[in-house]
Request: fold
Amino acid sequence: MRDALVDAVRLRLAEAGAAPGATEVAAALRAQGHPYGSTEVVELVRRLRSEMVGAGPLDPLLADPAVTDVLVNGPDEVWMDRGGGLERATGVRFADRQAVRRLAQRLATAAGRRLDDARPWTDARLPDGTRLHAVLPPVAVGCTHISLRVSRARPFTLPELVRAGSLPESGALLLRAMVRARLSYVVSGGTGTGKTTLLAALLGLAGPAERLVVVEDSAELRPDHPHVVRLEGRSPNQEGAGHVGLRELVRQALRIRPDRLVIGEVRGAEVAEFLAALNTGHEGGCGTVHANAAADVPARLEALASSAGLDRAALHSQLASALDAVVHLVREADGRRRVAEVALLRRGEGGLVGTEPAARFLPGGEVRRGSGWERLVAMCGRAERWAAS
Reply:
C-alpha cells in the first residue's frame, strides 16, 4: 500500500479527530477517491493502529518469540537477532527518516522519557518490558537509531538453557549448587551474551521463602520467583531534577530486608555499596558485569570502584571477602550464547584479588576441571550430585 495514501488517510483522521477504525478508514479512503475492498481496509487499519499505538513496521518482529533484538539504522535498514547473530529484516521499512524519528519519540514518551533536540538520546524500559535505546541526529549520523531488546514474557529456566545448548547438564547442576550454597557471584560477559537471561534463571532457583531485592537502572530482570522486590533508577526531568541513581537505590535496598541483593548490572559507583553489603552478612548476592573474560572481572570492578573514590587497596580488600565466584558467558561466531567458565576469586601476593579457574565448559559439552575445582566443591558441599560426577 502506497505510503502517500497512508499519510493522506492518517492526516484526514487526525483532522477529524477520529480513531483508525474500519468505518473511519473506509470513509477516508472514499474521500481520497480510492474505492478499496475490505481486505485493503483491514490492512490499512492494522498499519495505522500499529503506527499510532504500537511499534509501527517493527510490530511483526517484536511479536516473533524468537527475536531478541531489533535494530533500526535507517528507513530501509532494519536488523534483527533471532539467536543466530544479526540478520537483515527484509521487507521491513519506514516511509522516511522522519517516520523513524517519530517512532523513537513516541516510544520514549510511552516509557516516560524525554527525547528531543535538547536531550537527543534515551535509555528506557517500555511498558511491556522491552528495553529501548534511541539516538537522534545529529548525534546519530544520518538518521535516528533505535535499539530494542525484547523482554520475554516468561524467563528461561535452567533446563531450557541446557536444551538450548547454553551449558551442559553437569554445568546446570554446578550452578544450582552454587545458588543453594548461597555463594555470592557475578555473571560476566560481553554485550548480548545472555547475562541477564542466565541471572534470571539462577534467581528462580533461590528458595521460595527468600526475599529477592533487585536494583536496576532499567528494569529487565523478571525471575520466576514468588517474592521479588524491584527498584528502578530514574533519569532527571527536563529541569535536571529528580535523578535517582543505583548507588542510592542499593542503600535503600539494604533497608528493606533483602535475603539476596541483586544488581542487574554493576557499571558505576554503586559497586562500593554492593561490595560493602556482601561484606556485612548479605550472602548470596549477585549481579552482572561487562568483561571480556572471567580473569578481567577484578580489573573491571577496580575501574568502576575508582568512580566511587575507592583506591586499589580498598577495593581488593573488600572484593576478597565479598564475592566468591564469576560465571562467564561468551557468544560464538554463529551467534550461540553459552556459559564458558566458572572461576573463583582468590587473594594473591600483594593483597590483589585474581581469579582461579574452577570449571571450563567447552562447545561440545565437555567439562574441564580447573585448579579451583576442589575448593568450589568444598564451598558448595560434597553431598551435591554434581560433586560426584
Q: What stands out?
A: The longest strand covers residues 337-347.
